[in-house]
Predict the 3D structure of the following.
Amino acid sequence: MATVIAIANQKGGVGKTTTAINLAGALAEGGSRVLAVDMDPQANLTVGLGINLGHVERSIAQVLGEDHVAMPAIVVASPTERIDVAPATLELASTEVELFSAIGREFVLREALADGGIHEGYDYILIDCPPTLGLLTINGLVAADGVIIPVQTQYYALKGLTALVKVINTIRAKLNRDLRVLGLLPTFYDGRTVLAREMLEELRELGDHHVFNAIVRTTVKLGEAPLTGRPITSYAGSSEAARTFRELAKEVVELGQA
Amino acid sequence: MATVIAIANQKGGVGKTTTAINLAGALAEGGSRVLAVDMDPQANLTVGLGINLGHVERSIAQVLGEDHVAMPAIVVASPTERIDVAPATLELASTEVELFSAIGREFVLREALADGGIHEGYDYILIDCPPTLGLLTINGLVAADGVIIPVQTQYYALKGLTALVKVINTIRAKLNRDLRVLGLLPTFYDGRTVLAREMLEELRELGDHHVFNAIVRTTVKLGEAPLTGRPITSYAGSSEAARTFRELAKEVVELGQA
Ligand SMILES: Nc1ncnc2c1ncn2[C@@H]1O[C@H](COP(=O)(O)OP(=O)(O)OP(=O)(O)O)[C@@H](O)[C@H]1O
Ligand SMILES: Nc1ncnc2c1ncn2[C@@H]1O[C@H](COP(=O)(O)OP(=O)(O)OP(=O)(O)O)[C@@H](O)[C@H]1O
Ligand SMILES: [Mg+2]
Ligand SMILES: [Mg+2]
């Protein structure tokens, strides 16, 4: 059985896609087989892992929508060894509207992943969520065993945490008893600024949840890697950012064995 | 008649709220009366302009929802002279769901702004949109005369522009004939990196739309200002960021007279 991890935060631009791609890179480098699922109509994960959107005929939109295409039928290999992608396209935005009136609408992704041997083929399934708390993110959280919450070391990002944690608690109570918060991942950290240090301190003082030891610092390399369609572990394997995601992967693996 | 400007981009974290608040600051400093409308359930604009969310009893959610409260009834003064706020609360997320089945659902904000003398009381109405292309953003675009699109000088942000421009063109054709793109605003620019310079170049080469001369550089001061509830023009009036938003305000005023 694969471990399913959602990467979620309704605050925009906090590094959800960057975390999904580079955690996948570090896990794959360590020998794990990873399926990266793109639940965001922006399809940044799909593009960031080197898939040409123009070549994607069927995507998550067809799996979740009325066509009920089986998940294995849409999965494509990425250019990075041991990483496959369940791609998104823009059409996914209208699928979310279709889901509103569907029966069992929160379980559609969970059921699709339980289908056709997906779990046997992978060690980890990572789900990249869009910047909302709508049905696409809820499907990601219902399908997951654990959730990683990237939190920018900025004021608005910290303010938004309470709302997200409430939604996660509601999902655990009503839809997915196993869902646990694996941890909060500090992102866009710039140790030279007092703001980042204060926000990191505040994040750690919240106390309710584990804060990963791995801290993702601001670095242009994480902005460059998506142009190559490769995770940081292949684009800049000896960089600090690559080391950070290897550290995160190690923490995630250890948490899974707990 | 007030000039209504939406600040929109479905890509998360590109500086929509930062642009709305600080453009409001620069316009108000120049003597204009500004109403800042928060259409994002995250309520970052409301908080960033110094309104205490705990004290907000009625918000945009009540104006757009079934209660049909009049817009003037929810507007509150901000601590900054000549800036008022139409606040959001988390409830706004469920209002978006209610709107799905409402008649004329795309025009609700436009009609609410046409109500009760709002236009006479202000020179500018700025609308901060959430990071989606759902009904809340569509309402913002239908209510607006012009739209400012903040675009991070990063790869994913540029990729997402085509989808946004298509939606804007559809809205102009079907719902709001006057809507025009005032310009693309480069944000999070760090001139020391090749990436930012390349992305800025690419943005300018797209050619379809005006790119503002004002370029918002990465600066910790724009991350600090929200903690004070004041725009950058009061928090750090002599900073480069304040000068940038004054320049943007000047360009916006000139475009309005064109
Ligand atoms: N630590 C970092 N340093 C520098 N740039 C980064 C870092 N992390 C992410 N980026 C870049 O910042 C942008 C925002 O990150 P990303 O797209 O991963 O956030 P997101 O939370 O997935 O956004 P959205 O809410 O739109 O889905 C991207 O262009 C990415 O390449
Ligand atoms: N030029 C800048 N330099 C440094 N920090 C910035 C800059 N612009 C914005 N920020 C900070 O970066 C974060 C993201 O900006 P902001 O919240 O305005 O983006 P947004 O597009 O409104 O996000 P969302 O998609 O969640 O609505 C905020 O914490 C803000 O304070
Ligand atoms: Mg993303
Ligand atoms: Mg915002």
Summary: The mean pLDDT of chain A is 96. The pocket of magnesium ion (ligand 4) is lined by residues B 16-17, 40, 44 (CB under 6 Å). The first strand of chain A starts at residue 3 and ends at 7.
